[in-house]
Write a structure and sequence with these properties.
By secondary structure, this protein is mostly helical. The chain folds into three domains: 91 residues; 120 residues, Serine Threonine Protein Phosphatase 5, Tetratricopeptide repeat (Alpha Horseshoe), CATH 1.25.40.10; 95 residues. It contains 15 helices and no strands. It is globular and about 70 Å long. The N and C termini lie close together (11 Å).
Length: 334
């Protein structure tokens, strides 16, 4: 809990740090600790919002035109913390409890867009929450519900990209939206639409990489190329990204995702090598600190390799570790 009123100058970095700690704990499979961090981040944000509502002394000292911006920031940050706790509920197998939380957050963001129709940031926040909700619904098997949310998210992301095509964040978000809706359409056996979406994603992500040859852009294009079955393009990026020896659990997980998709499309004589490489990449991700079994077991890109006994053994081991560390305790929402 937050003792007394918290001035926003302190609260801005504090809530951000708490959310980062929560994300880190979740990847380590420390779900109880992650939930506590997200809950505390939400408390910090709510303390500021209550101060604004009550016109606290520090609020009176701010220029009048600054208060709406402060309120917007902490309202958005509070919703991110709430969605993060809903993500944990899904990880715990409690999607039924998570859905009302997601929908409440989305409704708040939708109201913000309706109240500020020209606010691009408000639309961006709504698009991101819809996509997060959609991804988690797909992972827990509610594919139709997830696809509907991601379709709405994509429309918003495309609107933002068209309004400001030079904005890298909007363009990257648009590329993500295309990719993840394509993934959902693939699971719905709507392969024609999935192919069109992936091709659009490939174009967007290729342009991003051409402008900035960094790791994130390389990973994004690698995933699209692999899901399209473009072995040459995907393998080149896999080799490029595998060149370093630094510990990077997220990168090894992404490489495993790409290899699993290449395995899906490969000829029989190439399948064994790709399967072995995908499992090896997953083991590296775990060795580098990834302990959240949900991120592996429920990742759609990894579905092609789920039947391998090594995949099952890895998930079983991580599940046992999480059970002993968390006792799968109830997650308390703020």
């Amino acid at each position: 809990t937050v003792p007394g009123p918290v001035k926003f100058e302190v609260a801005v970095p504090l809530q951000g740090t708490l959310r980062e700690l929560g994300s880190g704990a979740k990847k380590l499979g420390q779900l109880d600790q992650a939930s506590e961090y997200f809950s505390e981040a939400g408390d910090v944000c709510q303390a500021i919002l209550v101060d604004i509502q009550n016109d606290a002394d520090w609020v009176k000292q701010q220029p009048a035109n600054r208060i709406p911006l402060i309120r917007q920031f902490f309202s958005q940050s509070s919703d991110i913390a709430r969605s993060s706790q809903a993500n944990i509920l899904c990880t715990l197998g409690k999607a039924e409890q998570a859905v009302p939380v997601y929908l409440a957050v989305i409704e708040d963001r939708r109201t913000s867009v309706e109240d500020n129709p020209d606010d691009l940031n408000a639309k961006d926040q709504l698009a991101r929450h819809l996509r997060n909700f959609g991804q988690y619904m797909v992972r827990v098997g509610r594919v139709d519900q997830g696809a509907a949310a991601m379709a709405e998210s994509l429309l918003l992301s495309e609107t933002l990209y068209e309004a400001d095509p030079k904005n890298a964040d909007y363009k990257r978000s648009f590329g993500h939206g295309l990719y993840y809706l394509a993934t959902a359409r693939d699971l719905q056996n709507q392969t024609d639409e999935a192919t069109v979406l992936l091709e659009r994603s490939r174009v967007v992500r290729s342009e991003m990489l051409a402008v900035s040859d960094d790791k994130n852009n390389s990973v994004n294009l690698m995933l699209t190329e692999a899901r399209m079955g473009n072995a040459m393009g995907a393998q080149a990026l896999i080799e490029k990204l595998s060149a370093g020896d630094a510990k990077d659990a997220d990168l090894h997980l992404d490489i495993a995702r790409a290899l699993a998709q290449l395995y899906r499309y490969a000829d029989d004589d190439a399948k064994t090598e790709l399967l072995d490489a995908a499992i090896a990449a997953l083991n590296k991700a775990v060795a580098d600190g990834l302990q959240d079994s949900f991120l592996i077991e429920k990742q759609p890109d990894l579905y092609p390799v789920r039947d391998d006994e090594r995949f099952a053994a890895l998930c079983h081991r991580l599940n046992n570790t999480q059970l002993s560390g968390n006792a799968r305790a109830e997650t308390v929402l703020p």
